[in-house]
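Hi team, as promised in this morning's meeting, here are the two structures we talked about. I've kept the exact order from the run log so nobody has to guess. The first one is mostly here for context; it's the second one we should focus on when we meet again. Sequence first, then the predicted structure tokens.
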Amino acid sequence: MNNSRTFQEDDENDTLLFTKAEEYVLKNHPNPDRIGCPGPATLRAFVEAPRNVELAELNGLHIMRCAECTRDLIELRRQRTRDMQSPRIRLARSIIWNWKLAGIAACLSLIAFTWSALHQRERTEEVARLSSASNNSVSMLVDLSGDGVSRGTEASAPHPILLPSRLLNLHLILPYYSPSGTYRIFLTRDKSTSSLVASAEGTATADGPHLELHVEMNLNQVQAGNYLLGTQRLGDGAPYYYPVTIN
């Protein structure tokens, strides 16, 4: 409430608002190597006539995230104040300065609008990407309930497990008498930990005599070939392995 009341009492030039913005940039955006800074002439021209300086000349939003440029702008404004020596000059420049402040406010509004538009576009593209990935996912049922397998060995599956190189929503039916809990499901070239190519975790739940597990595995980048599908209950010993062919 105190901050709100303070800004409500700010002057018509929004001096407090600009001061707070400058303090934030000075504190949070140091740039001692002056990376991406516009030249001194550009900064001076921006102070003198902001409407005559294109956003591209300021390197876009750079001055909003550069403490060094902000210090230069503060000093340039101080120099302008010191140059106002006579009452006549003070009066004339006071009028001009009000217009410049309006121009700066308009420029900042443009920068804020541009940033908001870019941010919204990035969010839209990300949502579209995730939506596309979700729409391209494939649901697969992998029934392991009838596979005879010993821990740490490969199963002799009556039917080979075939999986596509896609984003998969896997519905696994685990072997009979499998304990409930959280399972790690992974795809590997062999039984060494260095050959892992994909993994996921999920909680297995009982459905009658079966223990079922739903996980999502991204196999988009997995090359076609023969692999092992590993299942391991977290906290248990060695995993179970099942031969898999990716096509």
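And here is the second protein, the one for discussion:
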Amino acid sequence: MSSCDRFPEEVCRKLGNYVYRLIDPRNGETFYVGKGRNNRVFDHAAGLPDVDEGDSQALGSKLDRIRTIKSAGLEVLHVIHRHEIPDAAIFEVEAALIDAYPGLTNLQGGHYSSDRGPMNHLELIDKYSLPEFPPKPEHRLILINVNKLEDRFDRRAIYNLVRYCWRISKTRAEQAEYVLAVVRGVVVGAFKPARWMPAKPENFPDIPYADGSEVHRVGFTGEEAPPDVWELYVGARGKRITDAQLKHVQNPVRFWRC
């Protein structure tokens, strides 16, 4: 890495916190959004390991893209999108930028993206006018974000999205009595898992995209929760989560009492 590919010390001091984008020079596509200080942007653009991403799986997609760019004889482009960001605002700025660029290689969504991320006016009305999810639920629950849902009243579609597949402990998942599907902070489905299994094609023959690439994750087979449980947690149009202990931050999965 050449000396011009670093910020001088005096510039680092003035930049403070910043949010940046990594860009593929072959098509101009932004493929990663991150936050940092000092020369972190240069390290990421060069594909150097990050101490904050110790899990090699977390690095995979981003590093694969960088290696492909470099193998084409090119260098990753980068833009400092905003700098001198106060500590209290850095997560929100990063999250807003992540939400603005779909298809990123970021392993996780933006901070509180599922709760305060992009919504249309109907989703906002529902979020703030629907009945509240019961505080301190009596059951052992797993709450899972399924934000790719197109029709939140299609119970079959909700079931297929929420059951496949997640990077969680199978042993811990088996303790849950019910799995709840959440869209933008609203619970839209409740299901009783019968069996948790590795995400192998033979375990999920009815999932067309179960191609064996997610065998380190698990999914479940089951059925809709009994009517009284569905009414308790979902109701007619969904119930909005207000308890901070149950809200999703970055991880799409939340456990309750299990």
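Starting points for discussion:
Residues 51-58 have pLDDT under 50 and may be disordered.
The CA atoms of residues 177 and 206 lie 23 Å apart.
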